[in-house]
Amino acid sequence: MRILHTADWHIGKRLHKHYLYQDFDLFIGWLCDLVHQEQIDAILVSGDVFDLANPSAEARKQYFQALIALKSLHCHLIITGGNHDSPSMLDAPKDLLLALEMNMIGGLPELIKDCIIPLPNKENPEVVIAALPYLRDSDVRLASEGNTYEDRLAAIRKGIQAKFDEAAAYCEKTYPNIPAIAMGHLYAAGVSTSESERDIQIGNQAAFKAEQFNTYFSYIALGHIHQPQRVSAQIPTFYSGSPLMLSFSERQDEKRVLLIDTQNGFEPESIAIPQFRKLLKVSGSLEQLQQKLSILEHEGQLNTLIEVEMLEEQYSSQKLANLDELVSNFDKDHLEIIKYRTQFKEQQKQSSAVFGAEQNLEDLKPKEVFESLLENEPFLPEERQELLHTFDELKEMLTTSD
């Protein structure tokens, strides 16, 4: 069978108030052409279908249009939920999708067998998919497990491993001698991240170690990390990465999908996704910015999006005003400045400010804000560390609740 691995579609994503609906439409159009040309039998989407747990009407429309387009090519879809997704929202049309030969597993079912999908069918399986969605804390850890912070991290890692082991055991027992592929949505130890992933499993502290993946599987199709990369494990284990650039930190990534041809083994072929739009970061002094912006030219099918960063030695309210004017008056066809900020090496801070003028609150992660607030409080080091641990756990509960 020819199986395509992708993940982290993040339908409805907004990059600094700029929606990426056009980008996703172009990706799906390209993907449909690829499915037809490469005669793909199945597509695995390893979580984070949507960017928000309660996606907009436009995002839901795009999702169903994508499913219809791919279904018309007689390609079997297996989709799992990620930490950005609402399991109940994804699972709502589950029976309808199943009738269309599409498998949706938004949240972990009560029985592990409901995650196991033989392809092309039960009667004559060639490969078995263990479609594990994002595993929430309640899926892998009892409330009574772990009295200390380290104990709770260990319990989460052990719980994740137990689910993969259980899925492997079911595949081996029910479909002996049939190769198995596992899908997962998690943070693996040692991977490279970008700015656009949301921390999971208690602030990424409960990182899953590669040696914990069950070696019964022939391939592990992972989602969550947006930078495409291989995980160092005993079996082929890959993050396909996100198909679109979801932050300026990803502007130099080569986005891709991974093609597995089971007749040739389980080392995937990397297929580059065309870059539908450019993301550019322009840095320098005010004078340098004026010069760099004046010579920029558009490339790609969609408008180029630009992040501007002014770097100056001394704080100057006049230069801030000049930067505002430069951005406001910037007018070049198909080029848009959607984000700008300043950094002063010798900055004059107001005594009441927690962050300097160079820092926009929207550019900071919640934990960075919390850490900066803690720095201004007279906590002992062990008290500060315990507060940070508690913050990670509370944030995990808020961002993964259904």
From TrEMBL:
Keyword Disulfide bond carried by entry: no
Keywords assigned: DNA recombination, DNA replication, Endonuclease, Exonuclease, Hydrolase, Nuclease
Molecular function via GO: exonuclease activity
Ranges for domain Nuclease SbcCD subunit D C-terminal: 276-377
Any Pfam family matching the protein: SbcD_C
Cross-referenced InterPro entries: Calcineurin-like_PHP (IPR004843), DNA_Repair-Maintenance_Comp (IPR050535), Metallo-depent_PP-like (IPR029052), Mre11_N (IPR041796), SbcD (IPR004593), SbcD_C (IPR026843)
Domain spans labelled Calcineurin-like phosphoesterase: 1-228
UniProt keyword Transcription present: no
Job of this protein: SbcCD cleaves DNA hairpin structures. These structures can inhibit DNA replication and are intermediates in certain DNA recombination reactions. The complex acts as a 3'->5' double strand exonuclease that can open hairpins. It also has a 5' single-strand endonuclease activity.
Known partners and oligomeric status: Heterodimer of SbcC and SbcD.
Family named by the database record: Belongs to the SbcD family.
Name of the molecule in the record: Nuclease SbcCD subunit D
Gene name of this polypeptide: sbcD
